[in-house]
């Protein structure tokens, strides 16, 4: 376990579940390909906790509004999960779980930041055909991934999603020996 460095930046993400047209789902965004960091990567809505935010819940809801058009009033916050330290970016991230009681229309917020927004059915996420492990170009095996909705979900988002699906009893056995190389990343 890595310990946060002094000055680690506080951040929050929203793991937003809802009842969609294809059953229970979760909201994911895809970062714009033009960004300097994590370009084109799928993620939960989220970002740094601003001084004006009243903690991680407010930050996660604000970011979901800015990135995807999620109306905060339609979200019931279920809980916050323990902070997770991301050594690569030096962020201390608080996952916030929510239920989308009153779904709003979603669309990418700032086009320079978000390329796509998708409600991904849990059934697609747990389908063994959509599961794989990914390997960094250096040869290092990184961890679990999902191929859903024209996205390769990997890294922090896939690891957190896997943990949440396990905790919810949704995960199904899948071939963890299916390994693919990551595309070049920035």
UniProtKB/TrEMBL annotation:
InterPro entries xrefs: CoAse, NUDIX_hydrolase-like_dom_sf, NUDIX_hydrolase_dom
CDD domains, alphabetized: NUDIX_CoAse_Nudt7
PANTHER family, A to Z: MITOCHONDRIAL COENZYME A DIPHOSPHATASE NUDT8, NUDIX HYDROLASE
Protein known as: CoA pyrophosphatase
GO MF terms, alphabetically ordered: coenzyme A diphosphatase activity; metal ion binding
Cofactor: Mg(2+); Mn(2+)
Swiss-Prot/TrEMBL keywords: Hydrolase, Magnesium, Manganese, Metal-binding
Family matches, as Pfam families: NUDIX
Taxonomy, superkingdom: Bacteria
Nudix hydrolase domain span: 7-146
């Amino acid at each position: 376990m890595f310990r946060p460095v002094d000055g680690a930046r506080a951040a929050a993400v929203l793991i937003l579940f809802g009842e969609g047209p294809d059953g229970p789902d979760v909201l994911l965004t895809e970062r714009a390909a033009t960004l300097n960091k994590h370009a084109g990567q799928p993620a939960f809505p989220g970002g740094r906790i601003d001084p004006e935010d009243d903690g991680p819940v407010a930050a996660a809801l604000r970011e979901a509004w800015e990135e995807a058009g999620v109306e905060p009033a339609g979200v019931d916050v279920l809980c916050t999960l323990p902070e997770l330290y991301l050594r690569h970016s030096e962020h201390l991230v608080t996952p916030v779980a929510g239920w989308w009681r009153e779904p709003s229309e979603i669309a990418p917020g700032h086009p320079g930041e978000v390329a796509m927004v998708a409600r991904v059915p849990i059934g697609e996420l747990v389908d063994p055909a959509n599961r794989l492990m990914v390997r960094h170009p250096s040869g290092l095996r990184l961890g679990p991934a999902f191929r859903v909705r024209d996205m390769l979900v990997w890294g922090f988002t896939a690891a957190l999603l896997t943990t949440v699906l396990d905790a919810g009893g949704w995960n199904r056995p899948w071939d963890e020996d299916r390994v693919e190389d990551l595309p070049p990343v920035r």
